[in-house]
Amino acid sequence: MFKLQELIRRDMDKLALNITTEQGKTLRDAQGDVFRGLEVVEHACGMATLQMGEYVSNVSSGIDTYSIREPLGVCAGICPFNFPAMIPLWMFPMAVTCGNTFILKPSEKDPGAAMILAELALEAGLPDGVLNIVHGTNDIVNNICDDDDIRAISFVGSNTAGMHIYARAASKGKRVQSNMGAKNHAIVMPDASIDATLNSLIAAGFGAAGQRCMALSTVVFVGGSRPWEDELIKRAKALKVNAGIEAGTDLGPVISRQAKDRIYRLIQSGTESGARAVLDGRNIVVPGYEAGNFVGPTILADVTSDMECYKEEIFGPVLLCMQAESLEEAITIVNNNKYGNGASIFTSSGIAARKFQNDIEAGQVGINVPIPVPLPFFSFTGSKASFAGDLNFYGKAGVQFYTQIKTVTQQWKDLPVQGVSLAMPTSQKT
């Protein structure tokens, strides 16, 4: 893992260019994609400590009990298109450092980064056959779910695929960790720092063209959104939409024509349901890339919780603006949503922040932080419809997911045996 870390740093630019070429995100964002995955590789370098068990001497007279963690065997990972380097690096470094072999299925839309990472793992000294790449779509996924030799499956992607994988694999007795859809909210209080909050909303709402499971796609303005709208529009309009390889680009294209059409449809459904399109990015044309799958920054105001554009994860550069009269009402709006990946509050009040932290039903909570994804010595803790399974990605939970615990109780007798007792032991003294 130390060598793999070194090699990924060496080939950072190569990996980023491959991601931009296949996936479309900007080069700077692609480098961030690799870097956030690299953090998990660094975390895996501490596996000797992370796998430490527990030991108690003399739990009874002459009896010691201790636990050890052992590998499961064969594990598998099924990856989405939006982070071609980071998500594979969430999975296989932890799994193989725990002693497992691993089967990785990258997205069929952008598998290049996974192939480069596999080559680097071999160069780093990972033995042949420990990391295996398979390509394909539905049939391959179902084969992974059904294969008797595979003990555990990690998945990141849509709810439709995630729940299918969870149900099918769990019915075969496999462990599954399934990170799925999201509708991440920000609550903006009237006392929030104006500049810092606006910059956070723009960056977290439109970064990566909105194709992040932690994108901040919905803002609930306590006291109304109109005082914020003009400046939001101004800053969103200043973003440069272009091919990811072009200098100065803020937003690249979305992944496919089908994704673009779906985003357009959800924007249209919002306007037809009464939302105001205060900024509409559907008609954007990028010179030199006229046939590209571009969607410009879009802001829909006066959104309500019964609208399809709110219920569905748009997965595009669309920011929804909602309104609440109080913090309590805003928290209720967020908690009534089925997803629970992340939520943030922007405020200068410690009292409001504490109430939000305690009452909000989301796995990852940000206080004046727009995308509260933790460093990998903590776990990625999505909840509700955003996660299926018992053990989350990386951190201590990740180690637990890729290992099974074995408890050993040992006794070394140095006294004569005092006969045989067939009763349930209440003491280990005899």
TrEMBL record:
GO molecular function: methylmalonate-semialdehyde dehydrogenase (acylating, NAD) activity
InterPro entries, per database record: Ald_DH/histidinol_DH, Ald_DH_C, Ald_DH_CS_CYS, Ald_DH_N, Aldehyde_DH_dom, MeMal-semiAld_DH
Pfam families named in the record: Aldedh
An individual GO BP term: L-valine catabolic process
Gene3D superfamilies listed in its UniProt record: Aldehyde Dehydrogenase, Chain A, domain 1 (3.40.605.10), Aldehyde Dehydrogenase, Chain A, domain 2 (3.40.309.10)
The keyword NAD is assigned to this record: yes
GO cellular component: mitochondrion
Domain called Aldehyde dehydrogenase: residue spans: 1-408
Sorted UniProt keywords: NAD, Oxidoreductase
Catalytic class of the enzyme: oxidoreductase
Presence of keyword NAD: yes
EC number: 1.2.1.27
PANTHER family: MALONATE-SEMIALDEHYDE DEHYDROGENASE, METHYLMALONATE-SEMIALDEHYDE DEHYDROGENASE [ACYLATING], MITOCHONDRIAL
Family stated for the protein in its record: Belongs to the aldehyde dehydrogenase family.
Annotated protein name in UniProt: methylmalonate-semialdehyde dehydrogenase (CoA acylating)
Organism in which the protein naturally occurs: Dendrobium nobile
